[in-house]
Amino acid sequence: MSSAAFHDTMVAHVESASMPGLIALVAHDGEVDVEIIGSKTFGDPRPMGRDAIFRIASLTKPIVAAVAMMLVDDGTLRLDEPVDELLPELADRRVLRTLGSALDDTVPAQRPITLEDVLSFRLGFGCIMEPPGTHPIQTAEEDLQLATLGPPWPPPAFGNDEWIRRLGTLPLMEQPGAQWRYNTGSQVLGVLLERAVGRPLEAVLRDRLFDPLGMVDTAFFVPAGKRDRFTTAYAPDPQSGELHVLDRNDDTSWWALPPALPNGAGWLVSTIDDYWAFASMMAAGGAHDGERLLSEDSFRSMTTDRLTSAQRQGATLFLGEGGWGLGMGTPAEGRGGFGWEGGTGTTWRTDPARGLTGILFTQRAMTSPTEPTVFTDFWSAAADLAGLPTR
């Protein structure tokens, strides 16, 4: 496929008005192609710039996980270590007898939660793929405003310490290590990193990753001086498909001010070049400009599936035929490699075996874990552009 054909494939999604704009990056064998299509907001006649700032949602997760593994490398943290010392709110856990049990129908946890449980999303708490209110634990989570079993917006008015205190008042859904459940692990990880280093989460990320990689626009909020590059986010109605504004790119945005709760599961904003700096470091096995930011062992741990066969089977709605390493997905059906997707309409995957990396930022939120058409078209076109067979 030529660059023109790749452009035509992607531009169709903007011309159909399914989204106001997108930025797509494909890297293969040292060549990097970037398509910038549409505008930051519907009705804006100005074309989107390459430096447009997007809400990257769950593409936050691999970033936070990578910094956690840097702390493992320097001995600050250990994968097999219980989190009790840094997160006493999660010590001496009780576990629901069944998922549908009343909150006081519990048994003792068989062991403490470890850092690996947190990173591998097997800490015993996370998303339930049933309607809200189906089980008492869902109602309790909603009453506590934890925003961990669904989208993280609107953001809570309290900070990480209060968030983990509230989470600690609830029992676990399963025994630590028993089952994969999405999302909550990354929120817990953000609190753990703050306490391990003794600094706010964004400062930890900036010192260990953003500054070394030159990720100048990646943050938990968009200051006024950068607001002219910020995109508007949209979400389709689940029934009609009609788009509505999820979050504006002005002073009313949820991202206009530093959040009370810097959510390590999905609150970062970034640009295509900032995220490419991170993705290219991961594509290089954890190295940047000849300097290793992640050890070989940590990189391998992040990108190798940690789940049992039974755990993967219970997570196919999120993972497809793929698995989960530490803070990111591992090879999935239809493509190889590691990476993840974000609910605001973002995706990244790196396939080392084929030398292919793709990053797509859109402004159309996903309505389910099922991959949207724009993603499947992107991955097919990316393989064609690189002269590779589509998986």
Protein model, in words:
The chain has 391 residues and is α+β, with helices and mostly antiparallel strands. It has helices at residues 3-15, 60-73, 115-119, 136-143, 160-167, 184-197, 201-213, 272-283, 296-303, 309-313, 316-319, 373-385; strands at residues 21-28, 31-38, 54-55, 94-96, 106-108, 233-236, 243-247, 269-270, 287-288, 291-292, 338-342, 346-351, 356-362. A five-stranded antiparallel β-sheet has the order 2-1-13-12-11, with helices on both faces. Helix 2 packs across helix 6 (184-197) and helix 2 (60-73) crosses helix 7. The radius of gyration is 20 Å and the shape is globular. The model has no long low-confidence stretch (mean pLDDT 96).
Quote the distance from N terminus to C terminus: 15 Å
In terms of per-residue confidence, which ranges show pLDDT below 50 for 5 or more consecutive residues?
none
For the largest sheet, list the strands in their spatial order.
2-1-13-12-11
Mean pLDDT reading: 96
| SS strand fraction | 5-15%
Q: State the total count of DSSP E strands.
A: 13
Measured as a percent range, the helix fraction is 25-40%
Main β-sheet description: 5 strands, antiparallel
Structural class: alpha+beta
Q: For the CA atoms, what is the radius of gyration?
A: 20 Å
The SSE order reads: HEEEHEEHHHHHEEEHEEHHHEEEH
Structural shape = globular
